[in-house]
Structure formats: structure tokens, C-alpha cells
Write a structure and sequence with these properties.
Blueprint: H1 7-29, H2 32-48, H3 58-91, H4 99-118, H5 121-131, H6 137-144, H7 148-168
Helix pairs in contact: 1-2, 1-3, 2-3, 4-7, 5-6, 5-7, 6-7
């Protein structure tokens, strides 16, 4: 088991230099929230390290740790951007999440919940087991203790409700 730096040392570093580090990161990121997150990550990183003597120049030490985290953060964002760009190329135009799209999604989810609530219990269970849990129809029949034909009828009923919902939208 590795010894960790005493939390009291980190607490002292935090109380004496966290505001300075947040401001230092704020100048580099130009984002207060990101600077606050990186400040927090810096002190978390220090808590995870093995015990070491307190640095003689704490601000330089904190800046070095924070700079490395900032570089990791930039790399991660570049990877995310590359993945989004690759996704856009393979899936057509990339649809950004907008407040309007979020509201549409919430309305659609509300409609789906109402639709599921309107189904008979076994039909709802069969549909959820098929569409959400990905069970095969014979597995659903075994789990619910009903025949395969009843499972097919329940799922067909649920799909009919879904199509009616889509037509109404």
C-alpha cells in the first residue's frame, strides 16, 4: 500500500493557493467554470499521489500539475471534436443539441411514457423487454409465462400505438 500525502498538507495548499490557481487557470482557459474544475482536479491529483515533502515553491508546483491537467483536458476535447467530426461524416450532417431539440425530446419522451402507460400491463412489459432490454420473443414468453403468439400480439399492439403516436405528431 502506498502512502499518500497527508491531507492536512493539501488542505493548507488549498487554503493558501486555490484562489490564485483558479485565477491563473482562468487566464489560460478564459472560462471560469473550466478553471474551477481544473483547480479541483489539481488538488484531487495531489491527494492521489504518494506522500512527498511540501514543495518549496508551492505556486510553481501547483502550476506544473495544473498545466499538465490542462494539456490532458485540451487533448480530450480535441479527441471529442474528432469523434464528432467523424460521426458527422459517417452519419450525415451533425445535429447539434439545441434547446429546441431538447424540448422536442422531452415532449417525445412524455408521449412515449403516456403511450406505455395506456398499454395493458403484459403488453407494456413485453414491449419494454423487447425494445429496452433486447430480449428475444421466446425469452419474453418464458419470462412472462405466456405463449409466444401472445408475446407477438402484445408487441404488435405496442407498435400500433407507437405508429398512431407518430402519425399524430
Amino acid at each position: 500500500m502506498r502512502a499518500h500525502r497527508p491531507a492536512g498538507d493539501i488542505e493548507l495548499l488549498y487554503s493558501d493557493h486555490a484562489d490564485w490557481l483558479r485565477a491563473w487557470l482562468g487566464r489560460r482557459t478564459r472560462c471560469a467554470q473550466r478553471a474551477a474544475d481544473l483547480t479541483q482536479d489539481t488538488f484531487c491529483r495531489l491527494l492521489e499521489r504518494p506522500a512527498q515533502p511540501m514543495p518549496s515553491a508551492p505556486r510553481g508546483f501547483l502550476a506544473t500539475v495544473a498545466r499538465r491537467l490542462l494539456i490532458d483536458d485540451i487533448r480530450r476535447r480535441e479527441i471529442e471534436r474528432a469523434v464528432r467530426d467523424a460521426f458527422a461524416l459517417t452519419e450525415g450532417a451533425y445535429d447539434a443539441i439545441t434547446p429546441e431539440r431538447t424540448i422536442e425530446a422531452v415532449h417525445l419522451l412524455d408521449a412515449i411514457i403516456r403511450l406505455l402507460d395506456a398499454l395493458p400491463e403484459q403488453a407494456r412489459q413485453a414491449f419494454v423487454l423487447r425494445r429496452i432490454e433486447g430480449l428475444k420473443q421466446d425469452e419474453i414468453a418464458a419470462r412472462l409465462g405466456i405463449s409466444l403468439s401472445t408475446v407477438k400480439r402484445h408487441i404488435a399492439l405496442a407498435y400500433a400505438h407507437c405508429y398512431a403516436l407518430a402519425e399524430a405528431a
